[in-house]
Amino acid sequence: MVRKEVVLNYIGKILIIIGIAMLTSLIWAIYFGEPVFKSILSGAAITIFFGILLSYIYRHNYEINYREGFAIVTLGWLSASLFGSLPFVFSGYFPTFADAFFETVSGFTTTGASILIDIEALPYSLLFWRSLTQWLGGMGIMVLFVAIIASMGVRANQLFRAEIPGGAMSEKLSPRIRETAKLLWITYVILSLILFIFLISFGMNIFDALCHTFTTMATGGFSTKNESIAFYNAQIQWIIIVFMFLAGANFSLYYFAYKNRTLKRIWQNSEFKIYTCIVLVAAFLVFISLKTIPDYEERIRTSLFQVVSILTTTGFATADYEKWNPLGQSVIFLLMFIGGCAGSTAGNIKVGRYMIMLKRVKIELEQMLHPKALISLRFEDKVLSNNLVINVLQYFFLYIILVLVSTLILAALDVDRITSFTASLSCISNIGPGFGIVGPTENYSHIPYLGKYILSILMLIGRLEIYPALILFMPTYWKE
C-alpha cells in the first residue's frame, strides 16, 4: 500500500534541497546586477515554502516500503522539474510554461535538449541554474537525497536502486546504502573539481568553467555558448573529451582504484573494455569518413569528440554531423542506441545491458548444440539470475516501444519523420541533439507544445530507466 504521508513528506524534503540549490544562482544575479534576481528568489522561496509545508504536514515515523520508493523517485523528479522551472517561468525569457518545463526537465535528466535560440541572451544567473540542474541530476537527485538524509532506514535501498544510473547492475561501494551514496557523490565532486581546475588553467573563465564542469561531469551537454564547445580552443576540447569519457564509465571503478591504489580493477572490468573499444572503433570510422578535414589533429579531435559526446549522451557539439558523409552519420546514429556504462552519469540503454543480451544469445546457441548443458550467465564475475536477464530483455523491448509510440505522436503533430524518430530516441536516451530540425546546430523550439510535453515525459522515463516511471501507471500498484 502507498501511504501518501510517506511520499509527500519525502517529496517535501526533496523540494527543500532543490530550493536551497536554486538560491546559489542569486550569487551571480547579485554579482552581475541582473533584474532576474527577483525571479530566482521568488522561485526558490516558493519551492522551499512548499517543501517545508509538505514535510511538516505529512511528518511521520514510517519506513519506506518498496512501492513508496518508486513513487518518491518518480514524483520527486517530476516535482523537482516543476518547481525547478519557476525561475525560468518568472524571468520572461521562456515564451511558455511548456518551454520552461522542457528546459528544466532536460536539465535535471541531463538530456541537454534546449528550446533556446540564443543561449547567450540568457542572464548569467539563469545560465548557472540551467547548468546546476544537470549537475544535480547527473549522479541523481535521490542519490544525493539518500546521502544527506540519515534517518531513512533500510528502505533507502528502494530509492537508491530505483534511481541510480544503471539500476540493479550498479555496484554497492559499502554494505550501507547511505554510505554508498555518499562515496559516489564524493567521487563525483572530486572529479568535478579536477575538471574545473583544468578548464581554468587552459583559458576558460571561472563562470564558464563552472557551468561546463557541471554539464560535462553530468554528461548533460548544456553550454553557455551558442557554438557549444566549438567556441573554445583545441586544448579545452581535448579536456572535455577526456572527462566526458570518464563520466561515461562506472564511477565505482574510480573509487576502488583510489581505495586500492591501483588501476587493475578498471582494466579488468569487461564493460569498461567494451566501452573503450566502441569509442576507438567508432572514432576510427568517423575519422576515415572526414576526408574534408586535411589537418590530422583536428580530424582525430573532431572524430573523438562527437563519438564520445553521443555515446556518453552528453550532447556537446564541435561539428555539424548532419553535413558528414553517410558513414559518419550512420556511426553517430548507431551510437544513439548505446550509451555509457552502468553506474555512470550517462543515459541510454548502456553497454552492460547489450553485453548481457549478447551473452544470453550465445547461451541459447550453445544450448541448441548441447541441450542437456546447464550454462549460467556471468557478468563481471557474477552469476546473473534469470529474473535480471529477463528484466534486461524487457527493458530493451519497452525502450523500442516507447520510441515508436512517441515517433507516431510527433508525426501526428506534423513533425517530419526523421525529426520525430531521432527526437524521441534522443530524449528517451537523454542525449539532446538528433537529426533534422533537432540536429546539433538546431534546437527544439519548433516542436509543438504538446510535443514538448511528450518529449519531457520521455526524458523523465529514460532518466529513471523506464520501470520506476511506468510502474505508477499500473492499477495494481495503488491497491493494497
Automatic annotation (TrEMBL):
Keywords: Cell inner membrane, Cell membrane, Ion transport, Membrane, Metal-binding, Potassium, Potassium transport, Transmembrane, Transmembrane helix, Transport. Pfam families: TrkH. It comes from Thermosyntropha lipolytica DSM 11003. GO terms for cellular component: plasma membrane. It comes from the Bacteria. The lineage of its organism: Bacteria, Bacillati, Bacillota, Clostridia, Eubacteriales. GO terms for molecular function: metal ion binding; potassium:chloride symporter activity. K(+) binds at T110, T111, G220, T313, T314, N430. It is a multi-pass membrane protein. Signal peptide: none annotated. Its main location: membrane. The chain crosses the membrane at residues 7-31, 37-58, 70-94, 132-154, 183-200, 236-257, 272-290, 331-351, 388-413, 453-474. Belongs to the TrkH potassium transport family. InterPro entries: Cat_transpt, TrkH. This is Trk system potassium uptake protein TrkH. It is found in: Cell inner membrane.
